[in-house]
Amino acid sequence: MKTLHEVIKNIRPIDHSRRNTIQAKLDDLTKPQGSLGRLEELAMRYCLITGKDKPVLRNKIIFTCAGDHGVTKEGVSAFPAAVTPQMVYNFLRGGAGVNVLARQAGARVIAVDMGVDHDFEPAEGLEIRKIGRGTGNIAAGPAMTREQAEASIMAGVGLVEKYRDGLDIIGTGDMGIGNTTPSSAIVSVITGTDPELVTGRGTGIDDSSLKSKVATIKKAIAVNRPDKSDALDVLAKVGGFEIGGIAGVVLGAALHRIPVVVDGFISTAGALIAAELCPAVKEYLVAAHQSVEIGHRKMLERLEQRPLLDLSLRLGEGTGAALGISLVESGLRILAEMATFSSAGVSEKNTEQTVL
Q1: Does 100 lie in the same domain as 34?
Q2: Whole-angstrom Cα distance, residue 66 to residue 229?
Q3: Tag placement on the chain: N or C end, fewer CB within 10 Å?
Q4: Is the pTM of this model over 0.70?
Q5: What is the pLDDT of residue 352?
Q6: If you ran DSSP here, which 8-state letter would residue 35 be given?
Q7: In terms of residue numbers, what domain contains 264?
Q8: How far is it, in rounded angstroms, from Cα 33 to Cα 26?
Q9: Pick from 278, 250, 111, 106: which is nearest to 170 by CA?
Q10: Burial class (CB in 10 A: 0-12, 13-18, 19+), 167
Q11: Helices and strands, counts by H and E, the chain
């Protein structure tokens, strides 16, 4: 497998030379120009990313990366850490929110053990890429070593490498009790924003717990002093194994010119790490939705992304990504299946000037 440096070096900016040709096709469809708004934008972006003229989405995968977090010892979550492996089993049984919405979108869900404090037996729909049995408590020291941070990213790249043949689109998802805390720390460090302004309630903590959570993040940043100019250092100091895995999935998708639909707050933390390592990946991203988590907006601004939806979602798992994949497919179906003015015998806009 390539090294992280080689992966980054081989990611290329998108070729925009076909933009006018694709736009002409969109404009020739039986509708006022631009009247399907962001669906047309999604069709355009997909074609530019992949180099295809009339693509069809057949093979869709959502990688739901899971990991445990030592910072849960600080009481930052309303749920116990035992929920992480329990939810992975729920994914495998097809009973989670992401499974329901993925079935609707026609996508497979691949659950990925990036660092769960539990030993899973091999199972269909499960990838075991465990870097460690949960991260360290970031309030007391680094989440992981720099080597583990790089390994988590490369594990995500490896997922794309394994499934990439015929893969049309990727969605990202997460599972990890306590993982909004490292995600808030990541956006705080990278954007230079006070933790109070980017820290939300996660699984639904009360006011007192939220205050404690903010204090924990401030302590983690002070103890670890992550270097904002070095995304790998930020991931190692205050991140999570599943966040690193998501960053790797984003990098792998960009490397192989596969559009990647990014879910909410934690997934976007992974995308943020990827984009800080390689800014070219921003063009390969589709931001599925605006999360309720207050730090998500800062992340999207940094990534120069405008989310497709705002449905007050905060579940994670890849639920928003499943909805986003459906919207991408809608845009592509418009491009491929809608009649043109000439084929339908419909008159185009009257361009003659009427003199009164």
Answers
A1: no
A2: 26
A3: C
A4: yes
A5: 53
A6: T
A7: 60-326
A8: 8
A9: 250
A10: middle
A11: 14, 6
- With contact defined as beta carbons under 8 Å apart, do 289 and 320 qualify? yes
Q: Where are the beta strands (DSSP E) in the chain?
A: 60-67, 108-115, 126-128, 169-175, 260-262, 285-287
Whether 309 and 212 map to the same domain: the answer is yes
Question: Six-digit token pair at 277?
Answer: 């390592």
Distance CA 317, CA 266 (A): 9
In a domain, 274, yes or no: yes
* Residue that is written with structure tokens 């490292």 in the block: 182
Question: Which CATH number fits the domain that encloses residue 217?
Answer: 3.40.50.10210
Walk across the sheet containing 60-67 and list its strands.
126-128, 108-115, 60-67, 169-175, 260-262, 285-287
pLDDT at 355: 45
Q: Are 91 and 108 in contact (CB under 8 A)?
A: no
Taking CA atoms, 287 is separated from 58, 188, 264, 328, in Å, by: 21, 20, 8, 11
**What CATH number is associated with residue 36?**
1.10.1610.10
> 289 is written with which tokens?
């939705």
Residues 6+ apart with CB under 8 A from 339: 29, 30, 346
- Known catalytic residues? 317
Q: What is the DSSP letter of 70?
A: G
Decide: 21 and 255 in contact? Cβ < 8 Å.
no
- List, run by run, the mean pLDDT of 10-residue segments along the chain (356 residues): 92 97 96 97 98 94 98 92 97 98 98 98 98 98 98 98 98 97 98 96 87 96 98 98 98 98 98 98 98 97 98 97 98 96 77 48
Indicate whether 175 and 76 sit together in one domain.
yes
Report the Cα 93 to chain-centroid distance in Å: 23
51, 148 in Cβ contact below 8 A? Answer: no
Pairing of strands 126-128, 108-115: parallel
Q: Per the structure, how many domains does the chain have?
A: 2
**Angle 166-88-205 from CA coordinates, rounded to 5°:** 120
11 is a domain residue: yes
Instruction: Tell me the backbone φ, ψ of residue 33, rounded to 5 degrees.
Output: -55, 130
